[in-house]
């Protein structure tokens, strides 16, 4: 792509609520190469830049450290290059405040942060894509979002060009991929030289971000968030955890999902803290070593990560000489908070971490792609019962469909507005009162909520009983030889559904597991109707990039309708009367 001279760029004359009146029409608009649109995010970031050269982004994978001044300088340059690259038609749509979608293909990295903010600064809608997507699969997301351009990171530059070539030759001739790497690293501007427009405003409630659903229950849908999510949700999380400029978060989550964006990236960046990106893959050995250095104050993970971290601690670290083992424990206890989301943290695992952390628990929360927060455990809450995901977040309207139990129904200030270009799916997502139907089942005890699972896969009906798969999984994980478990309902003529368990055994424990042994050891933990009647021992359970087990697909793979020789089945026996 040819270099663009910023002096030749035609900056926008926005058609927004600040369009000049007769008394101001003769005034020149306040736009230019060093001027950001008027939006709280940019005002706040420039303020941090003015306070010194503290590191905003520490990209450990690509060895880039950038101050807030450097970050904003690069954001302006990428925004300006976009102005000089996009067609007149696209620019006119942006200037008319129409919804214009931009794909972002990048891992958690400095390049991602720059591109994310640059798309925001041009008034576009950010559509982050997984950098692990096969090129053919990526075409689905590009086509669904109807994006005009793709911004691609160093890691994904080649894939970006291939995808752009396929898109431009089929359904969007003007689509192209722009490499981010050549556009960053500009000489940093002084904070005083970066301005916020007095008359070019971004609509706070306009469309700002699309996050695709995980696709575990159907084709992924693009959930559209307002720009208020980018600022307001980040501020709400920052206030909840009292984030400040002295904080440093280890960011190891995907940045095309709600948690990686709305919990681990934006709240820390907009608090003046340091976001430390790690995108080379999760390795519990390396993470423990990094924790041991005691430079971090926050870590946000998913249950699979905490499970692997605890396994490494129990099998390796705690068997080291006492003073060495204690240094790792001290590293974990140095955190202000450990956070967990995307799915429930199994209680046996939560208890182990609570003991290791000296009585402090991992703070869980509950949200979805469509609304990022409904329940959370506030820091310092000593009344929260074990197994609970906390109380309703302030400002959020939540009810359960059957009173103190049932489907979680939500109205949230920062929830999604629609599934893009899918009116039928959008209408089906809400009930007659305008509550979003989450599809998840919970129960309430006092002010605290407990997740029972997803209605479609986690609520089993066996022998006339309604059973939470998560309750059964929790007890199975309490067995010392179980590493991972998935419980599903398998259709059956006798029971309606059988309680079926797929189990991954811990290494160096037992070589095999019979269904009889499993049922015997669960007898004191579970009611008889909850005890598994099918078992399959497997080497692993396939998961999404956010660590969720893909139950819907695995159910038919591991427990096929025609049976499988590795599946053990418990049969009821009718004994003759004597």
TrEMBL record:
Give every AMP-binding enzyme C-terminal domain span: 472-548
A GO biological process of this protein is: fatty acid metabolic process
Residues annotated as domain AMP-dependent synthetase/ligase: 102-419
Fetch the InterPro entries from UniProt. AMP-bd_C, AMP-bd_C_sf, AMP-binding_CS, AMP-dep_synth/lig_dom, ANL_N_sf
**Where are the residues of the annotated region Disordered?**
1-29
Q: Which GO terms describe its molecular function?
A: medium-chain fatty acid-CoA ligase activity
Q: Which PROSITE patterns match?
A: AMP_BINDING
Name the family the entry cites. Answer: Belongs to the ATP-dependent AMP-binding enzyme family.
Q: What is this protein called?
A: Acyl-CoA synthetase family member 3, mitochondrial
């Amino acid at each position: 792509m040819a270099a663009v001279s910023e002096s030749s760029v035609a900056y926008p004359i926005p058609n927004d609520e600040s369009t000049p009146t007769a008394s101001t029409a003769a005034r020149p608009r306040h736009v230019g190469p060093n001027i950001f649109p008027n939006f709280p995010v940019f005002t706040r970031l420039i303020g941090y830049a003015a306070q010194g050269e503290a590191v905003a982004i520490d990209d450990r994978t690509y060895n880039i450290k950038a101050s807030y001044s450097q970050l904003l300088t690069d954001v302006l340059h990428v925004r300006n290059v976009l102005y000089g690259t996009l067609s007149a038609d696209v620019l006119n749509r942006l200037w008319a405040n129409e919804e214009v979608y931009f794909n972002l293909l990048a891992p958690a990295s400095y390049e991602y942060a720059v591109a994310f903010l640059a798309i925001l600064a041009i008034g576009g809608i950010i559509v982050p894509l997984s950098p692990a997507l096969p090129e053919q699969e990526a075409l689905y997301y590009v086509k669904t979002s109807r994006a005009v351009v793709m911004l691609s990171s160093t890691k994904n530059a080649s894939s970006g060009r291939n995808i752009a070539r396929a898109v431009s030759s089929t359904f969007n001739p003007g689509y192209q991929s722009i490499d981010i790497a050549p556009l960053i690293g500009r000489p940093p501007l002084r904070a005083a030289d970066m301005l916020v427009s007095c008359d070019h405003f971004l609509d706070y409630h306009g469309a700002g971000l699309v996050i695709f659903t995980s696709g575990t229950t159907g084709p992924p849908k693009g959930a559209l968030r307002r720009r208020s999510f980018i600022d307001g949700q980040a501020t709400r999380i920052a206030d909840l955890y009292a984030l400040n400029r002295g904080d440093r978060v280890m960011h190891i989550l995907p940045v095309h999902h709600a948690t990686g964006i709305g919990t681990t990236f934006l709240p820390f960046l907009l608090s003046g803290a340091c976001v430390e990106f790690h995108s080379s893959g999760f390795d519990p050995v390396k993470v423990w070593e990094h924790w041991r250095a005691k430079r971090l104050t926050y870590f946000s993970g998913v249950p699979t990560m905490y499970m692997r971290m605890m396994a490494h601690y129990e099998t390796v670290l705690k068997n080291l000489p006492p003073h060495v083992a204690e240094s790792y424990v001290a590293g974990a206890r140095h955190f202000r908070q450990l956070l967990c989301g995307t799915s429930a943290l199994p209680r046996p695992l939560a208890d182990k971490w609570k003991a290791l952390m000296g009585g402090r628990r991992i703070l869980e929360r509950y949200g979805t792609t469509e609304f990022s927060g409904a329940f959370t455990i506030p820091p310092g809450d000593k009344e929260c019962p074990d197994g609970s995901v906390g109380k309703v977040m302030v400002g959020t309207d939540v009810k359960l469909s059957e009173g103190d139990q049932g489907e979680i129904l939500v109205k949230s200030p920062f929830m999604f507005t629609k599934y893009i270009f899918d009116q039928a799916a959008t209408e089906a997502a809400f009930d007659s009162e305008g509550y979003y139907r989450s599809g998840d089942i919970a129960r309430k005890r006092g002010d605290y909520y407990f997740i029972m699972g997803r209605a479609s896969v986690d609520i089993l009906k066996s022998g006339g009983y309604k059973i939470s798969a998560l309750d059964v999984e929790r007890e199975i994980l309490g067995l010392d030889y179980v590493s991972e478990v998935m419980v599903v309902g398998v259709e059956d003529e006798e029971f309606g559904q059988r309680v079926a368990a797929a189990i991954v055994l811990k290494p160096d424990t037992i070589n095999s597991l019979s269904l009889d042994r499993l049922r015997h050891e669960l007898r004191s933990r579970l009611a008889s109707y909850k005890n598994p009647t099918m078992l399959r021992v497997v080497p692993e359970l396939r998961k999404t990039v956010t660590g969720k087990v893909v139950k819907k697909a695995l159910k038919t793979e591991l427990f096929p309708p025609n049976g499988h020789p590795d599946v053990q089945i418990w049969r009821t026996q009718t004994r003759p009367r004597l």
